[in-house]
């Protein structure tokens, strides 16, 4: 895998992870909500106008473009497993940004993911 190919995959993964974090920040800002007939439009409007959610959706759109560029250079059997890096990034960022618990078991799982991505990248 060339440096450009790896960079495109990594940028796509990081944009996707950033999108998840922004969506979470947006839902934290709005708070818990339930959809029912009475609040579909008000909640939908809140979601559609919340800046973090707009940013998260924008990151998704850009990540799709970058991902398509990556797939034009890298076999999907190598690129797709690299998406697992997003699990690692999101777990650490959620702990740091949102105070979410990352237990020893989760760290062990993250270590296994990192090892798996390493093996796939070297194949």
Provide a descriptive summary of the structure in words.
It is built from 6 helices and no strands. It is mainly alpha-helical and 123 residues long. The protein has one domain (3-122). 15% of the residues are buried.
- Helical proportion, percent range: over 70%
| Class derived from helix and strand content | mainly alpha
Shape estimate: globular
| Rounded mean pLDDT score | 91
Radius of gyration based on Cα positions: 17 Å
Quick summary of this structure?
By secondary structure, the protein is an all-alpha fold.
Question: What features would you highlight for this structure?
Answer:
123 residues; mainly alpha; 6 helices
SSE layout and pairing:
Elements: H1 3-30, H2 40-49, H3 51-71, H4 76-82, H5 85-98, H6 104-122
Helix pairs in contact: 1-3, 1-5, 5-6
